[in-house]
Design a protein that fits this description.
The protein is an all-alpha fold and 257 residues long. It has one domain. Helices cover 75% and strands 0% of the residues. The chain has eleven helices and no strands. It has helices at 22-34, 37-53, 56-59, 68-97, 100-106, 110-145, 156-180, 183-203, 205-210, 213-221, 229-253. Helix 2 runs antiparallel to helix 4 (68-97), helix 4 packs parallel to helix 7 (156-180) and helix 4 crosses helix 8. The termini are far apart. The relative contact order is 0.12.
């Protein structure tokens, strides 16, 4: 006769496993997004291009306002050239490499995986914003050391607009990646669509003021919220909220083979 383990003071092991902690999912998604060769090269290019573009207001002072806020805007524009591509790869890499089956086997609740990727992308954007701030401080130091007079007009609003601008561009990349779920089309779309709407905006005030991110999001960067909140909100819905929501639905319903 088999003697129950309980009689020996030993509890039988439970077969039920607890859910994976969300923090562990975020760390896993961060590692998958940044530990690839492509991601490392892209992040290095983001750093180098930001540092390189920050030399422009130093060596061409007549072409840029010599203010702290102006230098910070240069850093923001430099960061957002390639940073959305890194965010796209966070969402598309596993689909392109066909490793998504393993991910969804480990965590069948797909929405948690998407949320972890989104959280990792926000961390990426926040870290990039901090890096841009450091590069800006270094550029301002070089300009001041050369004897140039700089207007110290950096306010909380200007810093907030800078951070939001970087995050919005990262989230736009996330939204495209979630929607298209293929690296090459999503990366191509991230460059082609803003350029196309900028051209349309040149011919249509409606497009320029409500959809074209080069106009609407520049108001965020320049901290010009007065009278522009509705336009900025519509632009965020168009570029971030709607495609991200559609991408989440597609991720949940898509068959994994």
């Amino acid at each position: 006769m088999t003697i129950p383990l309980r009689t020996h003071g030993i509890e039988a092991p439970s077969s039920a496993l607890g859910p994976i902690p969300f923090s562990r999912l975020v760390r896993a998604e961060w590692a998958k997004a940044t530990d690839t060769r492509a991601a490392r090269w892209l992040l290095a290019l983001v750093a180098l291009s930001t540092a390189g573009m920050m030399l422009a207001p130093i060596f061409a002072p007549t072409s840029f306002d010599q203010t702290h806020a102006s230098y910070l805007r240069v850093a923001a524009l430099a960061l957002t050239i390639l940073l959305p591509v890194v965010a796209i790869l966070m969402l598309t890499g596993e689909w392109s490499q066909r490793s998504v089956f393993t991910t969804f086997t480990q965590e069948p609740r797909r929405i948690r995986v998407v949320n972890a990727k989104l959280a990792a992308s926000i961390v990426l954007g926040g870290g990039a914003a901090v890096f841009g701030g450091v590069v800006t401080a270094a550029a301002l130091g070089l300009a001041s050391a050369s004897g140039r007079a700089l207007e110290a007009n950096l306010t909380v609003g200007a810093i907030t607009g800078y951070v939001l601008f970087v995050l919005l561009n990262v989230l736009a990349g996330v939204a495209l990646g979630a929607l298209l779920q293929s690296s090459a089309p999503a990366i191509a779309a991230s460059f082609a669509l803003p350029a196309a709407f900028a051209l349309l905006g040149a011919a249509s005030t409606l497009v320029a003021d409500w959809i074209d991110m080069s106009t609407t999001w520049s108001w965020v960067l320049e901290n010009e919220w007065g009278g522009h909140v509705p336009q900025i909100s519509v632009s965020v819905l168009f570029w971030v909220a709607v495609p991200l929501a559609a991408g989440v639905v597609r991720t949940i319903r898509r068959d994994v083979t």
